[in-house]
Structure prediction request, 488 residues.
Amino acid sequence: MGKVLKPGVTIKGTKDGLLFLLDESRPFSVILSELQYKLEQSSNIWDGPDTRVRIKTGNRQISRSEEKELRRLFSARKNLIIHSIETEGKSDGGNMNPGIQMLAGTVRSGQVLEYRGDLLLLGDVNPGGTVRTTGSVFVLGALRGLAHAGGEGDESAIIAASALKPTQLRIANVVSRPPDEWEDSETSGMNFAYLINHQIAVDKMHHLSRIRPEIEWKENRFRG
Amino acid sequence: MGESIVVTSGKGGVGKSTTSANIGTALALAGNKVCLLDTDIGLRNLDVLMGLENRIIFDLVDVVEKKCRIKQALIKDKRCDALYLLPAAQTKDKSAISTEQLRWLTYELKEEFDYVIIDSPAGIEMGFKTAVSGADRAIVIATPENASVRDADRVIGLLEKENVGSPKLIVNRFRSHLVKEGGMMDVDEVVSVLAIDLLGVVPDDEEIIWAGNQGEPIVLHNKGLASKAYRNIAKRIQGEVVPLLVLEKENKMVARMKKWLGFA
Ligand SMILES: Nc1ncnc2c1ncn2[C@@H]1O[C@H](COP(=O)(O)OP(=O)(O)O)[C@@H](O)[C@H]1O
Ligand SMILES: [Mg+2]
Prediction:
């Protein structure tokens, strides 16, 4: 990963106001917190006359709730008036699998980690914390909070965790909470949750290849 | 330049004020110049725990409103020469002081004191944000119960957002017999959920309640475990490596203590 990190939020002055460029390659939650930081930090810069703001999200299609969150952040600066939020038309590669995003850290109570695509979290999701993706969720740590995979309807999404002890699981639009009598033995080791017959089922990790043969690894078969 | 440490928890009644009083006193007994700063405006009680209530003339709000100089509002402790209290106002509410004002005040106090211990109100609203704004470091108090741990977790997330570096955990009111019976979370369970360094474990002890009612922090007198726990915490704050107390003589526990030594 020898790449130079671009800032998630680039702010440019134009002749008729300010242009906010939001990096499309980073999770939106990361962009939002960077934006919030920038809006809060340099307090004196923002206290000027009313300014028109244009926001460009690159190739990222943002959802209604993401847009609401975005507007909420800007509402903290009364003089910044959002004129437009622009998304580039889906380019040819629009349907490309963006690969798995890897992020480290604890998702604590009250925090929401959102990502468009598949997410590998190196850390815990605590009770009261939420991870939501449009793809699958993999937690290399304890999942004790809420995980929502396939947030836009992808029913093939799965949720896997080193310790799968969620308060609630959601895949696509199916909601489930673990039965009260979940035995420790059932949840020990790596488990994953998936959707079958509109119900969420949990199984040992080594059964995944049977349930999703299309991603099974086979010897002597080069990939990529 | 000294250091400011906020004592916080999210949940109320878990022992923030008691802990502030005791570790402040312990730090002073160890030879530091210490200021206890009560930011729980409207619900002040650090002065009561310290037995200094009847000496209050000016308070925190008077100071930030410049009705008096900082020195005039500082109350010198009856027992320790190097210990002072800046009491909260009792008649105002949390909006009586801004984050900028508290930042200014802690800055001024740090010029004078080695440690400024900021006792914070319960909750995560304005009073919390104000208290935290003046802090270099944070101590999070949790009792070994689900609700308390959940609130502590929330607070740790907010502390990270407010850029208060790596908070440390004190587990308060620990009762080993309840853990054995399965009625209480074990310390390592709490630590594993919150994923922050453990600063110490304080046992649940009636003497602490007694001492609080007498206005005499327990570290001043008692030779028991609770008093020792507070003194050890004070040592760790000063950067000493002190093994965790064995609150109970049981092999399993001792093994766990060893595991925690790295946190000291
Ligand atoms: N370790 C402890 N053992 C027994 N009682 C305690 C302990 N710590 C605090 N208490 C009691 O709990 C109550 C609440 O403590 P306090 O310090 O006022 O909490 P907070 O400031 O967080 O609201 C008080 O009555 C206090 O004496
Ligand atoms: Mg209190």
Notes: Chain A is about 15% helix and 35% strand. Residues 90-96 of chain A have pLDDT under 50 and may be disordered. The interface with chain B takes residues 33, 106, 108-111, 123-124, 126-129, 142, 144 of chain A (CB under 8 Å).
